Amino acid sequence: MRTSTISKTVQLLALGIYSAGILSSCSTQTTQAEAAQTTEVAPDKMPTIMAELTDAPLVPAPITRKHAAKVVVKLEVKEVVKKLADGVDYTFWTFGGSVPGKFIRIRQNDEVEFHLMNHPDSKNPHNIDLHAVTGPGGGAASTFTAPGHETVFNFKALNPGLYVYHCATAPVGMHIANGMYGLILVEPEEGLPKVDKEYYVMQGDFYTKGEFGTPGLQPFDMEKALDENPSYVVFNGSVGALTGDNALTAKVGEKVRLFVGNGGPNLISSFHVIGEIFDNVYTEGGTKTQNNVQTTLVPAGGSAITEFKADVPGNYVLVDHSIFRAFNKGALGMLKVEGDENKRMYSGQIVDKIYQPEGSTVQEMPQSKAPAAAVALNKNSRMELGKTLFAQNCQACHQAEGQGIKGAFPPLAKSDYLNADLNRAIGIVAHGLEGQIKVNGELYNSTMPKLKLSDEEIANVLTYVVNNWGNKGGEVTPAQVKKAKASYKH
Ligand SMILES: [Cu+2]
């Protein structure tokens, strides 16, 4: 219900804007038109070129011609069922058969003859708004195309830059949410500086009935879209489109340029490559560069061009640094850089040793230094020795009175978990513990390191623990430790 009212309003608004645009365009375009005149070539003198279109992550070759041309672009809209994630399918509406749409590359002052074809199997009409177009609706006003139809319009590429294009048919949000967006690059007349690798990466948010990972064909969820609460945030149309065998590649020493777009429909992207610094960013896809950038903001319906030299071999992870989107909703890609290491630029790990400030978790504890551990003769001497062992090995985390630290280290004092199963406690001290446990009603999900204590030492420290702070008492012997260790599974 909400949808249809909103879309009607949008259509009316759009029409209003379109006519206003026609009226005002004459007066506002003078400077651009004047500038363009210097390079104006009679239409019949201009060479005609068929645009090469590519699917992400590939980009058409840089433009080398030194003059404007008439460029024919033929873009076909198709509604297709494709993979959104492993085991998850979605009905994408596409410019050219995949998400994002085909990459279009033209030159400033080119005159474009734009054909939009809508495949006969489509269920919906579509159109196209190219942000590179100066004119009503960016072309949307001239390209409303029913299934099985083709529309054509011409435009002149007045402004260089990297532009988003998208469908603008009502309900606009739904057409974009289904994948109807792509990038068009208008190269400046002098071209872009030469690089070794160019790639096309475009982010989008998807709204499915099922939560992230729910298998099967997932329908679009309008409520989630209105709430701007996507189930998926992905690069290039699906989870994993840029990882594993699909990862981008470069060699050490190569200059890499990423044409980054964001189709939205809702989220803005904090685009970042883990372990790289962008030498240059053409902010917002314009023609000015910013240098030495860690994370660049890519608006919904906007873009950025990022450039960097691949100096150090390894795997570089592309993320939206709104980081739950990366690790929990799919906005993660990879660039594999191969080549020789440069240890001065990046050494790799050269030290890994134990560091234990108070209260921190460490991976492994050294053997206690005592040359030959004292052997307890009876329960009392076991407790005596255990007290020292506790101070040396446990107290930093579990605290002097075994009270623990809420949320980090569970209590050993009056611990229902400890008292319920002594053999399990032996196993924990012998092997360490990872994962969620509940102690006295509190959840802990942390790591206890493996401690490298002898059976005798484990017996002594636990005898000390179980006879203090309200625990149930008793004696733990080395023989019991040996047996419990052998049968402990975790
Ligand atoms: Cu559409």
Automatic annotation (TrEMBL):
<keyword id="KW-0186">Copper</keyword>
<keyword id="KW-0677">Repeat</keyword>
<keyword id="KW-0560">Oxidoreductase</keyword>
<feature type="binding site" description="type 1 copper site">
    <location>
        <position position="180"/>
    </location>
    <ligand>
        <name>Cu cation</name>
    </ligand>
</feature>
<protein>
    <recommendedName>
        <fullName>Copper-containing nitrite reductase</fullName>
        <ecNumber>1.7.2.1</ecNumber>
    </recommendedName>
</protein>
<dbReference type="InterPro" id="IPR011707">
    <property type="entry name" value="Cu-oxidase-like_N"/>
</dbReference>
<feature type="binding site" description="type 1 copper site">
    <location>
        <position position="166"/>
    </location>
    <ligand>
        <name>Cu cation</name>
    </ligand>
</feature>
<dbReference type="GO" id="GO:0005507">
    <property type="term" value="F:copper ion binding"/>
</dbReference>
<feature type="binding site" description="type 1 copper site">
    <location>
        <position position="321"/>
    </location>
    <ligand>
        <name>Cu cation</name>
    </ligand>
</feature>
<keyword id="KW-0408">Iron</keyword>
<dbReference type="InterPro" id="IPR008972">
    <property type="entry name" value="Cupredoxin"/>
</dbReference>
<feature type="domain" description="Cytochrome c">
    <location>
        <begin position="381"/>
        <end position="469"/>
    </location>
</feature>
<dbReference type="Pfam" id="PF07732">
    <property type="entry name" value="Cu-oxidase_3"/>
</dbReference>
<dbReference type="GO" id="GO:0020037">
    <property type="term" value="F:heme binding"/>
</dbReference>
<keyword id="KW-0349">Heme</keyword>
<dbReference type="InterPro" id="IPR009056">
    <property type="entry name" value="Cyt_c-like_dom"/>
</dbReference>
<feature type="binding site" description="type 1 copper site">
    <location>
        <position position="131"/>
    </location>
    <ligand>
        <name>Cu cation</name>
    </ligand>
</feature>
<comment type="similarity">
    <text>Belongs to the multicopper oxidase family.</text>
</comment>
<feature type="binding site" description="type 1 copper site">
    <location>
        <position position="126"/>
    </location>
    <ligand>
        <name>Cu cation</name>
    </ligand>
</feature>
<dbReference type="Pfam" id="PF00034">
    <property type="entry name" value="Cytochrom_C"/>
</dbReference>
<dbReference type="GO" id="GO:0050421">
    <property type="term" value="F:nitrite reductase (NO-forming) activity"/>
</dbReference>
<keyword id="KW-0479">Metal-binding</keyword>
<feature type="binding site" description="type 1 copper site">
    <location>
        <position position="167"/>
    </location>
    <ligand>
        <name>Cu cation</name>
    </ligand>
</feature>
<feature type="binding site" description="type 1 copper site">
    <location>
        <position position="175"/>
    </location>
    <ligand>
        <name>Cu cation</name>
    </ligand>
</feature>
<comment type="subunit">
    <text>Homotrimer.</text>
</comment>
<dbReference type="InterPro" id="IPR001287">
    <property type="entry name" value="NO2-reductase_Cu"/>
</dbReference>
<dbReference type="GO" id="GO:0009055">
    <property type="term" value="F:electron transfer activity"/>
</dbReference>
<dbReference type="InterPro" id="IPR051459">
    <property type="entry name" value="Cytochrome_c-type_DH"/>
</dbReference>
<dbReference type="InterPro" id="IPR036909">
    <property type="entry name" value="Cyt_c-like_dom_sf"/>
</dbReference>
